[in-house]
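Q: Predict the bound structure with pyridoxal-5'-phosphate.
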Amino acid sequence: MLSVENARLEKIEHPLFDEKNVQVFVQRDDLIHPLVSGNKWRKLKYNLLAWKNSKKEGVLTFGGAYSNHLLATAAACQLENIPCIGMVRGEELNPQSNATLAQCSALGMRLIFMDRMTYQMREDKQFIEELSYEYPNYYIIPEGGANYYGMIGCQEIVKDFPSDIQAVFVAQGTTTTSSGILLGLSEQQSLFVVPALKGFDVAAEMEHRWRYAGFPDELWEEKQIQLQIKTVDQFGGYGKWNEELIQFIKGFYQLTKIPLDVVYTGKAMYALMEEIKRDRFNHQQVVFVHTGGLQGNPEELKYLFTI
Ligand SMILES: *Cc1c(COP(=O)(O)O)cnc(C)c1O
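A: Predicted complex:
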C-alpha cells in the first residue's frame, strides 16, 4: 500500500530569507512516489478506499493528454492491482500520442478517447449515471480526484504542521488540494493559492468545488476569509514556460537541492519569492506545499535534477 512516509517538512535556506527574517519550510509531498506524486496520492487515498468499499472491480477516471492525475491513477492502480480506465480529452489522440499517455498505457490503464464536447459533461450528473450503466463494475473518480474524498485526503497535508506557521503556499489546478488544505488550517493561518490557469476565477471554482463535495455554503463563506490569491501570468499561462522560469527553477535547485516543475510548483515558488521580496512575510514562518509533478519536466531540467 502506498503511504506518505517519505513526505516530510523541510526547512530551506536562502539569502533572501535571512535578509527578510522569514523562515520557509517545504512540505515534500513530491517525495511520496516518483509517479503517484504529491497531491495526486493525497487525492487518491480515500477515493481508492471508497472503491474498495464499493466492491467494484476497477476504477475509471478522467484527464487531459498531459494529466498528472491520469498518470498517478495508472501507477497507483498498477501498484495495488486495480483494473483502471482513463477517459482522455481529445478523440484525435491515441496511446502513443505523448509520453504521459504512453506511460499510462504501459502501466495497464485502458485509455478511451473522448471528443471535447462529450468531455465537457464529465461532471454532469446524468452523464455520470449513464457512464456507470455502461461501466457497472468501475468506481468513477472525477477528473483531478476533485471530490469530497480528494479534499479530505488533502486536509491531511497540514495535519502535522507546527501551530506557529502563519501562512501556507500552494499551486492550484482543480482547487481540490487547496480546498483540503484550507479545511485543515486553523483560523489564524492564511492560505496563498497560485492558480496555474490564466484568467481563472478562483473563488467561483472553489465555491463550486465545496458545494460539489457536499459542504454547506456557510463553511465556505467562513473559510474563504483566510484565502489569498497570487497570480503569475508572465510565463504565458497554463502549461507554458519560458527561459526566465527555467532559470528561476535552476537557481532555486542550486541553492536548495529541491526540484520544481514548470507547470505548477515552479510558478508557485516564484510567487512566494516575490511576496517575500515585497516584505510580506517578514518575521513569519511559511510553508510551501510541494505538490510534485516532476515527471512532466522538460529534458533540460530532468538532466539537472538527476546529477
Ligand atoms: C495536479 C497538480 C496540482 C493541482 O492540484 P489541484 O488539486 O488540482 O488544485 C498542483 N501541483 C502539481 C504538481 C500537480 O500535479
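A: Residues 39-54 form the longest helix (16 residues).
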